[in-house]
Automatic annotation (TrEMBL):
InterPro entries: G_SEPTIN_dom, P-loop_NTPase, TLDc_dom. Gene3D superfamilies: P-loop containing nucleotide triphosphate hydrolases. CDD domains: Ras_like_GTPase. GO terms for molecular function: GTP binding. This is TLDc domain-containing protein. One of its GO terms (biological process) is immune response. Belongs to the TRAFAC class TrmE-Era-EngA-EngB-Septin-like GTPase superfamily. Septin GTPase family.
Length: 428
């Protein structure tokens, strides 16, 4: 009897192996900070019944659920609040869903409402996604909108599970090499004031150029207009919303706009102008026309020109014979990328960015990438902005952009609730 029991225990323990690869585990830990994952529950071993789940997972603190389906998707969710079968609705602003898109897990934050109902049933997130539904290897989507998820993207519309695992999330006692800052930044008010003063006193090397013109390019909703509003607010000393911004599915910016920034309400104009464009879209005939980029770079497109996605900019006959001055041309291009959507960027938008990158390269114009919404992409950064350069997840996002079709090199990084890194060292 002893021998049989021992053999059974060994067999059970042997079957309690994680379905995650070491790299996948590492990426999930990066979402949560300096943590370790301990496997509590494996449905194929313990059973898909709600009672089996609660027996293993109740009162275990923060947990991470990982599901696998027949199509090969790996996805799930995190909650920082214990399962206790209290029957209460749980408020948990740290809760999120995730889905691996390639090698990287994409994080989906809550819109509003309760993170879950803490009952005796199967695990659920937002009463929207139910795992092991009806005590079977099945995923059920109720259609609620607590989380903005796309079933096709998150789990390939495949609700048949092959496995469901739950991990206990604990703070790691050891400091991993990933937690060493990958860039040293001085987060002080004095440093901020010094940087602002450097901007105020900047003078272009060419005397005919009084202000540097910076062109912002990016997909719809990446945050181009919001970034200008942030910069303008910093120097104005109050919240401003001069540029229209939002999260619509199509571009809110329909005109080419040039935005000077003043140093305070009564201050002088600063030595740069931010130029906003229509967002890039996947569909042909929608969003910014690639042919318009060359005209903008060469300084031919006037302020308030209304873009026509179906037809590129046509030169005014009176301007054709007068070449644009150096002051009217673009001196720097900024690619604005949403950190929460890098892995979800369509191949068509990537191709458009790559095409623009080649055109800008041909004119030897300096280029940088501005990565926005990094606090939404990584819960660690959301808790503490100064942990940005401790986040290996954000580092992986930087590397992912660098390795994409744009091939922007990561030489320097700057952060102000957005991430900035350059392909050319700016010494002037």
């Amino acid at each position: 009897i002893y021998s049989s029991t021992t053999s059974f225990i060994h067999a059970l323990n042997a079957s309690l192996t994680s379905g995650l690869t070491e790299e996948q585990r590492k990426q999930l830990c990066a979402l949560l900070g300096d943590v370790k994952l301990s496997l509590l529950y494996k449905a194929s071993v313990h059973g898909y019944q709600a009672s089996a789940f609660h027996q293993r997972c109740d009162s275990q603190g923060p947990t991470l659920l990982v599901a696998y389906n027949r199509t090969g998707y790996i996805f799930g969710g995190y909650t920082s609040v214990d399962y206790t079968q209290s029957g209460q609705y749980i408020t948990d602003r740290e809760a999120f869903l995730f889905s691996f898109q390639g090698k990287i897990p994409v994080c989906i934050k809550m819109n509003s409402g309760y993170a879950r109902l803490d009952d005796a049933g199967v695990p659920n997130f937002g009463q929207q996604l139910y795992f092991c539904y009806n005590n079977q290897p099945v995923l059920y989507n109720s259609g609620a909108n607590v989380f903005s998820l796309n079933p096709a993207t998150m789990y390939g519309n495949d609700t048949q599970l092959t496995e469901c695992e739950v991990y206990k999330v604990e703070q790691s006692s050891a400091v991993s090499i990933e937690q060493k800052p990958w860039r040293n930044v001085l987060w002080t008010a004095e440093r901020k004031d010094k940087l602002m003063e450097t901007i105020r006193n900047y003078k272009p090397l060419v005397t005919s150029v009084s202000r540097v013109r910076i062109l912002m390019i990016g997909p719809v909703g990446a945050g181009k207009s919001s970034f200008f509003n942030s910069i303008n607010s910093i120097f104005m000393g109050r919240i401003t919303s001069k540029a229209m911004s939002g999260s619509a599915g199509t571009s809110l910016t329909t005109q080419f706009r040039t935005y000077p920034v003043k140093d305070g309400r009564e201050g002088k104009p600063l030595p740069f102008v931010l130029c906003d464009t229509m967002g890039l879209e996947e569909q042909t005939g929608a969003g910014l026309d690639i042919e318009d980029i060359s005209s903008i770079l060469q300084g031919h497109v006037p302020d308030r020109y209304k873009f026509n996605p179906m037809a590129p900019f046509q030169h005014n006959e009176q301007r054709v014979y007068r070449p644009a001055s150096l002051q009217e041309k673009i001196h720097c291009v900024v690619y604005v990328i949403d950190a929460t959507k890098i892995s979800l960027m369509s191949s068509k938008v990537e191709e458009k960015l790559a095409s623009i990158h080649r055109r800008v390269n041909s004119q030897s114009i300096p280029q940088i990438v501005l990565m926005t919404k990094v606090d939404e992409a990584c819960p660690l950064v959301e808790k503490d902005l100064q942990s940005l350069y401790l986040s290996s997840y954000i580092k992986s996002k930087v590397q992912e952009v660098h390795g994409g079709q744009t091939q922007i090199k990561c030489y320097c990084l700057v952060k102000c609730k957005v991430l900035l890194y350059s392909c050319i060292k700016f010494e002037s």
